[in-house]
Amino acid sequence: MIPHLSKAVVLGAGTMGAQIAAHLANAGVQVTLLDLDRETSEQGLKRAAKARPAAFTSAGRQRLVATAGFDDGLAAVSEADWVIEAIVERLEPKRELLARVEAAWRAGTIVSTNTSGIPVAQMVAGRSSEFARHFLGSHFFNPPRYLYLLELIPTPHTDPAIYARVAELAERRLGKGVVRAKDTPAFIANRIGTHNLSLAVRLMLKYELSVAEVDELTGPLIGRPRSATFRTLDLVGLDVLAQVAAHAYQSLPEDPEREAFKLPEPLTGMLERSWLGEKSGQGFYRRQNGEILALDLKTLEYRPRRGLRSAAVELARGLDDPRRRLDTLLMADEPAARFLHELLARSLCYAAGRVPEIADDIIDVDRAMRWGFGWERGPFETWDLLGVDRVKQWLKEFGLEAPPLLQEAAGQGSFYRRDGTRLAPGRGYSPAPVRQGVVTFADHRAAGRKLAGNAGASLVELGEGILGVELHGKLNILGHDIMAMLHQGVERASREFDGLVIATDAVDFSAGANLMLLLIEADEGNWPELDLMVRQFQQVITALRRSPVPVVVAPRGRALAGGCELCLAGSVVQAAAETYLGLVEVGVGLIPAGGGTTEMARRAAARLPDGVPADPLPLLRWAFETIALAKVSTSAEEARELGLLKESDRITMNADRLLLAARATARYLADQGYAPPPDAPIRVMGRKGIAATEAILYNLRTGQQISDHDLLVARRLAHVMCGGDIPEGSEVAAEYLLDLEREAFLDLLGQPKSQERMRHILKTGKPLRN
């Protein structure tokens, strides 16, 4: 039975408490947010509502959060399904509050603490055995909406059934990736992550590297996030690192790397000056007169950033294979290579030595670092990438003792095996635990279900009579290869399957069309080829819309421009909660020409009630502005408010469960006797609509809010959406609007200023206003 979660209480309206409450509301849970008094709770809620990035997936979700003080609000505990404590990080106040909670608590209600390292078991000392049975740690990472990791920490008293219930709720309802951590200082991610960050600072000083150089080395080059080391510390806050590190140092007298948790002198100097990072306006970096300066840790003065001058680094940047990239960096005879060599050796050794102390399963350690710190590979996955025996030799070079777990792995050559087993401490190799509800395209391919494919996409049999089109190119840029697989997929699904799912295992669904290819063809004057490319995209979109079997499009992350148009063409969209949809073509001086403009015109017309006189202008303006202002949703829920998702489209909180959910939706639609929507004509506003948009654009131009080229692009967009120079209320076929789309797109593509915008965004990643 799926556990239910309808009401929750969050104790503490500080940064974490208020944002946890917001995320519960995002999941549709009614929340009571409590603090010392109602005013404090309301202030916390207001901060969460103003947080950037946004804590709420929609402004309307804030209405699900009620506020009160502890004295008048603890009665809500008796009606809650889950109570989460998130007050100040001190043991005694937590214990005192939990005693008050128990007085209002009813059996069956989960109670958890969001502590980041205080011993969880100590909090329920003196509480009843029944209360302790329902209690555990639930360590959310900040910000809770965006960071996937949730560490669950059972105590010796926690009922396994309660733990399983919380894990299921967290995965299914809150969209979290759950790892099981032991009740040890800093748990898993902060223990390994803080050690890694502190170690990087110490080694930077040892090898006399700069802040910017270390960030260049410890970011994407080695499979870590772009924030790398010091940008991460500026985002998190040096005071937070100091608190976690000090707690670890005090609590771990026997830790072999204890000294790594002791902040070096330059960092203590920064703390004394309150140079904490973004929250204080400066930290390891500072913005001054439009320039980003980096801190010199020797002098504590800010200087222009000094990049690495290294042939090895330049070569590594061009390598896609992570093993070759690391090998290239490590083989160079320079301080940067020696820094990386020692950082990897010490950090990998430390992680291996902490199992089974902090977790019983190496998978939990790897997942914690991937989901909580944004690493591409966890420490044990990195061991296997580099070679266990090779890294073991490194330990000898630095005088490090190989931990027992490494001795077990060294005899076998890896921590993970290709047969799906992994090394369990003292138990040899055993099958990895299966995450219920989580299936990927990679799983299906490994089972031999790939039917066809090319560089950009593959056809994969998903089971239950459903075919999948997997997008797997770089950013899933829409080119000939993906178009070919989409065309083949809809044809094959129509003949051999009951439904089609279009999705990806990647972080982002699709960033749209290949701008570089469009520019090259335009520069060479290949207009017939460009016309054919746009026609083929429109034909694929039309085929998806008219497919006799249901087409479920399952976006996650960014679904922009052509990627958004793919979504608009689906029978149903099964979107991950964190999906960012937008028709953004105007940003590069173009308009949507893969059916996006046509579909928004169709949706505007469909909102007019049948048989009732109504002014269509507000609906035209809504659809026009969605495209003309290049609006991008900050969530799937906001995409629904923008009209980019329909009310019938569905949202999945956990992106890892998206593929299975999309398959289930396709199966459901097929079982219900799905039929494609009729090819009804689209009602447009014609000349009257063009005149109305012209008045809007005139005011914007005279107010210098848009440029002349913005005006040109917007006029072409209005011409298409209104159906051209025809009477108001005319009904036109979709093909007519598609022809107008294509004509406008190609005309704008030939404009020098549009080409300037395209080149600028390809070069800088930022839009150009010209």
- pLDDT average, as an integer? 95
Q: Within the largest sheet, what's the order of strands?
A: 3-2-1-4-5-6-7-8
- Structural class by SSE content: alpha/beta
Unreliable segments of 5+ consecutive residues: none
Radius of gyration: 28 Å
- Backbone shape: globular
What CATH first level of the largest domain would be assigned? Mainly Alpha
Q: What's the architecture of the largest domain in CATH terms? A: Orthogonal Bundle
- CATH-defined fold name of the largest domain: N-(1-d-carboxylethyl)-l-norvaline Dehydrogenase, domain 2
Number of strands: 24
Biggest sheet, open or closed, and with what strands and sense? 8 strands, mixed
Description of the molecule:
This protein has 770 residues and is an alpha/beta fold. It folds into four domains: 7-180, Rossmann fold (3-Layer(aba) Sandwich); 189-417, N-(1-d-carboxylethyl)-l-norvaline Dehydrogenase, domain 2 (Orthogonal Bundle); 441-584 and 632-677, 2-enoyl-CoA Hydratase, Chain A, domain 1 (Alpha-Beta Complex); 588-627 and 679-770, no CATH class. The protein is 46% helix and 14% strand. The chain has 32 helices and 24 strands. The strands form six sheets. It has an eight-stranded mixed sheet with strand order 3-2-1-4-5-6-7-8. A seven-stranded mixed sheet has the order 14-15-16-17-18-20-22, with helices on both faces. Strands 9-10-11 form a three-stranded antiparallel sheet. Helix 29 (686-702) packs antiparallel against helix 30 (708-721). The chain is globular, with a radius of gyration of 28 Å. It starts with 6 loop residues before the first strand and ends in a 6-residue tail after the last helix. The mean pLDDT is 95.
